[in-house]
Amino acid sequence: MSNRRTKRRIRAALEAATPGPWETYPAYGHLGVGQFVDEPGNGPMLFIETGGVTYAHNDADAHLIANAPAWLAELLAENECLKSQVTRLRKQK
Question: 3-state class of 22 per DSSP?
């Protein structure tokens, strides 16, 4: 994840998305059965149907949510690498 372009894409997606905090709650109705993602005070912004169909009210929010698993995995991997480097450097002292 040390790729600067990837980090710029993540930052741009975060800046474009609804700032949150976001909450989820179960939904049953004409859209099906699933979860609404909601920004309190502004109403539902995304519906994730059980079975994997997603209806987004905002493309920027949908983009952020769709990429979050891969981006989080990359950030966690980079964090582990940096922690290992810090440990190694501390042992050299």
Answer: coil
Beta-strand ranges (E) seen in the chain are 23-29, 32-39, 43-49, 54-56
Domain ranges of the chain: 1-17+59-93, 18-57
Token pair 């710029």 is found at 8
Write out the H or E segment, with its range, that includes residue 90.
Answer: helix 59-92
Q: Are 42 and 57 in contact (CB under 8 A)?
A: no
Report pLDDT digits (tens) over 36-70: 777 777 766 677 766 666 666 677 777 787 788 78
Q: What are phi and psi of 81, to 5 degrees?
A: -65, -45
**This model's pTM is above 0.85:** no
| Among 66, 85, 89, CA closest to 2 | 85
Rounded to 5 degrees, what are φ and ψ at 80? -65, -40
